[in-house]
Amino acid sequence: MKGAATSSGAAPSRDRLSALRTRGALRNLRAPVAVPESVVRLRRLARRRLGALRRRLTATQRFLRSRWLRSLQLRVVTTTLVISAMVVTVLGFFLMQQITSDQLQAKELQAGNVVVTDGVPTAHTEPGWDSRPNGTTTQNLMDTIVSKLQAPAEAESSYGVAIMLAAPYSGAPVFRAGDTAGVVISEIPAKLVSKVNALQKEGKSAASFTFAKMGSPSALGTLVPGLVYGVPVGPYYQLYYFFPLTQVQQSLDQIQRTLLVAGVVLVFLFAAIAALVTRWVVTPVRHAARGAQRLSTGNLDERMPVRGVDELAALATSFNEMAASLQEKMTALEDLSQVQRVFVSDVSHELRTPLTTIKIAADVLFANREQLAGPVSRSAELLQSQLERFESLLTDLLEISRYDANVAVLDAEPVDICDLARLSADVAQQLAERRGAKIEFRLPAEPCIAEVERVRVERILRNLLVNAVEHGEGKDAVVTVAGDSAAVAVAVRDYGIGLAVGEEHLVFDRFWRADPARARTTGGTGLGLAIALEDARLHGGWLEAWGEVGRGSVFRLTLPRTIGAELAGSPLPLAPAEADGSTATLADTDTAAALTVGVSANGGAPPGASGADGLAAGQPDAGSPAAPGAADGDGVGTVGTPAGAPGQPRAGSRVR
To answer: What CA–CA distances, in Å, run from 8 to 3, 11, 67, 261?
Structure first.
């Protein structure tokens, strides 16, 4: 019992030991195999080389595609080259087939004449050709026939000849299958031998032939293609000829090479002719395209030379007539525009003197309105307000006439845009207080210095702020300032009626109103945004608008830090990307409180910050107006209007 217990206890120990060994082996199998460093470097080098090759191929493909799409002459020449190559190839193939067939027929006719007119009659002239084979006589007869029929040494084409006994007579008493000169009897095709045997049994003396490869008399030891003829000679003998096609093959090779060279030359000749003809057609078209480009840039004196009386001459004539008509109409429009500008300027200047006199009288009446009767006092107040509006309109007309006459001059100096934004809000702040709203400023910690003309930028911002308050429906307006290394931007956000789709194109037009029936409670002239656009354009900047019905609007002014610099983007987004009910998160609330002027309506933290000040701009608190987000959002009707093109969107506007 004790021994049994010991044995049963040893078995589990062996099982556990086996399991442990199995686990160790599996663990060794799972262990990663160390890859040599040289292999790793080779893999990296191969990947780099493949990547470089892929980039080169992609660049080459793009270049060829661009060249193909841009060049009509290249497309015509390439198409002509391909079609010509296909046509020449097909024609060459059929021509080569016809030449080969003619060569073979000629060779067959020549070989047939040799067999029928020379071979059989010569064999029939020998005595004993129709006698039963018998030993030495038969051997001498076959030697004689072969010696007479073999090709002479001076012949142009060599051939082989053989005479054989019919199968039943090749044994005793001759003990010889036949005699040959230049033909290996064992290489004669069995099908031809069978056919000759059949004709011999029928008593016919017709010649048969087939194509085969056999040893040539001129190239011993080499199989060459040729014609093998066989014909019965009486009831006992069979005559065979082998005509090599070596010369025919050489002739066909020479013809094929000639056709190939001629075809290649013909294809490139067709391509050259197509290039020449296309050049005759494309060159005037290119001249017309370049002339149209110069015409579009304002060079109205551009004309095309007219040569001949063909269609191209008609094109040049039509182009010149169009250019002359366009020049005439543009000159007339410029003259009319000049007359209009002079008229507006003269009228505005002439109205200054009577307006000054009327305003002095109105000021006297307004100062003594308390001494006047009620209706007369009210009339004095209306007269005073309307005269102020008329004076503003006259000032705006004079300013816009300066831009139309291209006499506006920029007097730039380094200015902090943040200070201008605060100083420009005086009139708008008073209007906002009367409406129960306020203007919230979100300014960066560092000054945003740019070379601008203070008066013009103040006028832009004052106009944007007044519009934001007037159309804000009593809600707060948000002013955000930001800058980067190349530009500064000011975004004015309101939460009023907004702009319908397409109206962001029209807001910069002169005397445009979103609602023609809407009263101008603040005395606007209808020229504010048009003048603001011209002021931004004079600085080399952008003035853009975004709006959506029910969500308000955003007007963004972007100016270069230095005069003459070209803008590539704006530090602020144009369309807001906010969600109602979300909360704002700032990287540093203390810093944010120091950087932001004004607080939200519920007394909490500012809704967020924008620009290049390093803050993490978040979303507004519930119930507070939202600021423009950190990137262009999904607003409807987001279209920028750059200063370089009034009323037109700036395609590809990006935010840094």
So the answer is: 9, 5, 88, 95
In sequence order, the 6+-apart residues with CB closer than 8 A to the CB of 428 are 439, 462, 465, 466, 468, 469, 477
The answer to whether the Cα torsion of 601, 604, 610, 611 is positive or negative is positive
Chain centroid to CA 165:
81
pLDDT for 15-64, tens place per residue?
665 665 666 555 555 555 677 888 888 888 898 999 899 999 999 989 88
Which 3 state secondary structure label does DSSP give 134? coil
Q: What is the DSSP letter of 604?
A: S
Gap between the Cα atoms of 459 and 470, Å rounded: 16
**pTM, to two decimals:** 0.45
Rounded Cα gap, residues 324 and 291, in angstroms: 13
Taking alpha carbons only, the member of 57, 179, 195 closest to residue 126 is: 179
Dihedral of the CA atoms 48, 53, 57, 63 (nearest 10)? 80
CATH of 132-250, one of 3.30.70, 3.10.450, 3.30.450, 3.10.150: 3.30.450
CA angle, corner 397, sides to 394 and 399, nearest 5? 110
Instruction: Say yes or no to pLDDT of 330 above 60.
Output: yes
CATH 3.30.450 in the chain, residue ranges: 132-250
